[in-house]
Design a protein that fits this description.
Elements: H1 2-17, E1 25-28, E2 34-38, H2 41-67, H3 71-75, H4 77-88, H5 91-98, H6 104-123, H7 138-152, H8 155-163, E3 178-183, E4 193-202, E5 210-216, E6 221-226, E7 235-238, E8 241-246, E9 254-257, E10 260-261, E11 264-270, E12 273-276, E13 278-284, E14 293-299, E15 304-308, E16 311-316, H9 325-334, H10 338-345, E17 354-359, E18 364-368, E19 387-388, E20 407-409, E21 415-418, H11 450-458, H12 466-473, E22 486-487, H13 489-493, H14 503-510, H15 521-536, E23 543-544, H16 547-565, H17 572-575, E24 576-580, E25 583-586, E26 597-601, E27 607-621, E28 629-633, H18 651-655, E29 660-662, H19 666-672, E30 675-677
Parallel strand pairs: 2-5, 9-19, 22-23, 24-27
Antiparallel strand pairs: 1-2, 1-30, 3-4, 3-21, 4-27, 5-6, 6-7, 7-8, 8-17, 9-16, 10-11, 11-12, 13-14, 14-15, 15-16, 17-18, 18-20, 24-25, 26-27, 27-28, 28-29
Helix pairs in contact: 1-6, 2-6, 2-7, 5-7, 9-10, 14-15, 15-16
Length: 680
């Protein structure tokens, strides 16, 4: 009997994984956004792989190469560094060991996604830029996913710190931030729940958001943003609920210094006993180098181990110890209510990101999420610094439950927000969590940043209409009390009369209203000031700028403007540009305003926006049971192909801080679609 049941179960699982491209419909709306419809989740995953490949196949190939450990064959030395990290952290080994812990329906999903990318590569071999990429497997894919997640958890920052001999503290991953807001009927004038999804990411590349709508006949109907290589929506909304992610900065990894045996370079002391390091070799293939490079890799009881001139250090990373993060996202995608959503969160496999939630049932919720270790609370161990790697007292092996993390549900204030700041400053001050009731070893943020400080100025005790709700997210002004690393009070108080040559620059800046609009002259001065001080004082502890440094900074701004533009009467948009293809447009924003821009040197003294405000989505959940009302905008467009009409058809909306309507209604999508077809 058991054998028969097993055969029936196997047959059912196999049928789930079967894919018929003729069953899959890709509908492109007027902005080229793919809406993928199919009978099964597996076939939907195939469809999104195909659609995304049509829009950005080159970036997807880099994801594939990372999963195969062959980035070096495509990108040379820089790519080989990623291959080395994957081997050092034993990511592929962990995938192999934990593969059978994945649920069959989720495995079927990733089989569909992988099949879709392989099929596209086979159909269009001329578009395969990296010959080592295809075919690739489900385990390759999962390796790429875990590797990407580890980077979001600080691995790409921690490893250079160790190798560079700077391991006094554990740095957090420093992405470009995000905003998230949720309100329920207590706060909204309409009695609806509102959700704002606002990712601050690079506007191109492997962590630039791509918008899609995925719908199956198995209860999956989700619209939102995903990164290249995503087989599901990372944040967005379904018919009943939605959520937004922002990056959080709690202590997501630990660094240990090992006590080495003077008589044996590959032994370290652990609980009074000399213990052997595991020694293996990473074999790396690098583009342009005909031979395979062999590099030793080490492993201790704590994890991946590196030998440096300053000592031997181990890195312990929760993100690389659990391969189910993507499966947790899948359960979140398909949740129908808060109970199901919270059950998905209870997997605690997603090791990072704040989660801001709202639903049609008038529930709002926020948790500073993470896969948090149960660390030794003994105050002699500083978990924010380098730890002794010679004792089991610092070797954690268990993780906290979701209930132990900072979280709010339906606060009396009726609103929640996060701008990458403290989870203990998430709502009205009367209802904020007490930071002293949470484990100090988690390293939770306790501070305001400029964006969160500005939110406290914008949200008051009155109810909020939808227009005002959106206006908060699109706000372009710094708060009254600045929260940057370096205080510029001396620049604001410098007497312009003492510096005749710099008088115009000084008075322009001191009269500035702190708005980062493209036409602002004061914002132009601040932009150059910000990047000058960030570069000049890099690595210097937080402090006030001296009077001499203030004068020096003004002199720099003055000289810079004259050198590149021949005048000091410049607006922010004269210097900072949003660039797509061969077109340039004036760009608003700078770091840590609610509508930010991050820029880098471009040409002729101008700066090019590389990230900041990226995918933006607003959701209203009607109380009458209808579908949510959705509007969104991305920085440029759905396609990375310069010849596509969707290469930059959204950036006019983006620049004007406007949105486009979106829907989860299949009939409406098909009725208005500009193209409807099947993948092959």
């Amino acid at each position: 009997m058991r054998k028969i049941l097993f055969i029936l179960l196997l047959a059912a699982l196999q049928s789930k994984a079967q894919i018929n491209p003729a069953n899959i419909t890709i509908a492109r709306d007027s902005f080229g956004i793919p809406h993928v419809f199919a009978p099964t989740d597996t076939e939907v995953a195939y469809g999104i792989a195909w659609a995304h490949a049509e829009d950005d196949f080159e970036t997807l190939q880099l994801v594939v190469l990372s999963g195969k450990g062959k980035l070096g064959t495509g990108l040379g030395k820089k790519g080989a560094e990623g291959d080395y990290v994957i081997k050092l952290l034993r990511i592929r080994q962990t995938v192999e060991e934990q593969w059978n812990t994945l649920s069959p329906d989720f495995v079927a999903l990733i089989k569909g996604y992988v099949a879709g990318l392989n099929a596209y590569a086979k159909k269009y071999p001329g578009k395969v830029k990296y010959k080592k990429a295809f075919p690739f497997t489900e385990k390759d894919y999962m390796t790429a996913v875990v590797f990407s997640i580890s980077l979001f958890c600080g691995v790409d920052d921690a490893l250079p710190q160790i190798l560079g001999g700077k391991v006094a503290t554990i740095p957090g991953f420093n992405p470009q931030g995000s905003n998230a807001f949720a309100m329920n009927s207590v706060k909204t004038t309409t009695g609806e729940s509102f959700l704002a999804i606002n990712a601050h990411q690079p506007n191109t590349g492997p962590v630039a958001f791509y918008e899609a709508h995925l719908q199956s006949e198995q209860g999956w109907n989700m619209l939102g943003g995903l990164f290249p290589g995503g087989c599901l929506i990372f944040h967005g909304t379904n018919e009943n609920l939605g959520w937004a992610h922002t990056v959080n900065y709690q202590d997501k990894l630990d660094i240990y210094q090992l006590e080495m045996n003077p008589a044996n370079k590959n032994q370290y002391k652990f609980d009074g006993q000399w213990t052997d390091l595991e020694v293996n070799k990473a074999r790396l293939k690098v583009k342009g180098i005909p031979v395979t490079i062999s590099k030793k890799i080490y492993w201790s009881k704590y994890g991946a181990t590196l030998k440096t001139g300053k000592g031997v250090f181990s890195l312990r990373v929760p993100a690389t110890m659990d391969i189910k993060a993507l499966e947790q996202w899948y359960r979140m995608n398909k949740a129908k209510n808060f109970t199901e959503f919270y059950k998905a969160l209870s997997m605690t496999s997603l090791p990072m990101f704040n989660i801001m939630y709202a639903d049609r049932y008038d529930t709002i919720f926020y948790v500073s999420n993470g896969k948090m270790p149960k660390r030794n609370p003994d105050p002699k161990y500083n978990w924010k610094s380098t730890l002794p790697g010679n004792t089991s007292a610092t070797l954690w092996t268990e993780f906290k439950s979701i209930k132990e993390l900072p979280q709010y549900i339906n606060p009396p204030s009726g609103y929640l927000f996060n701008t990458n700041h403290s989870p203990f400053l998430a709502t009205d001050k009367a209802y904020n969590l007490d930071k002293n009731k949470f484990d100090r070893t988690d390293g939770w943020e306790t501070y305001h940043n400029n964006r969160s400080q500005r939110v406290t100025e914008l949200i008051n005790s009155e109810k909020t209409d939808y227009t005002t709700f959106k206006r908060v997210k699109f706000d372009q002004q710094l708060p009254k009390e600045l929260k940057y690393t370096y205080s510029i009070d001396s620049m604001l108080n410098l007497n312009a009369a003492d510096f005749p040559q710099l008088k115009d620059v000084i008075t322009t800046f001191q009269a500035w209203d702190r708005k980062s609009i493209a036409s602002s002259r004061g914002a132009a001065v601040f932009l150059l000031t910000y990047y000058y001080l960030a570069d000049r004082l890099k690595g210097v502890p937080s402090r006030k700028i001296t009077k001499a440094e203030a004068a020096e900074t003004y002199q720099y701004v003055y000289d810079y403007m004259l050198k590149y533009f021949g005048k000091t009467d410049l607006a922010l948009g004269d210097i900072q540009k949003l660039v797509r293809g061969d077109e340039e447009r004036p760009a608003w924003g700078f770091p840590d305003v609610l509508a930010p821009s991050f820029s880098e040197p471009y040409k002729n003294g101008m700066r090019k926006v590389t990230g900041g405000d990226a995918y933006i989505c607003f959701v209203r959940y009607p109380r009458d049971g209808g579908l949510p009302k959705i509007e969104s905008v991305n920085t440029f467009g759905a396609s990375m192909n310069p010849s596509s009409p969707h290469f930059k058809d959204q950036w006019g909306l983006f620049q004007a801080q406007q949105t486009k309507p979106m829907t989860l209604d299949k009939n409406e999508v098909l009725k208005k679609a500009k193209a409807v077809y099947h993948p092959q």
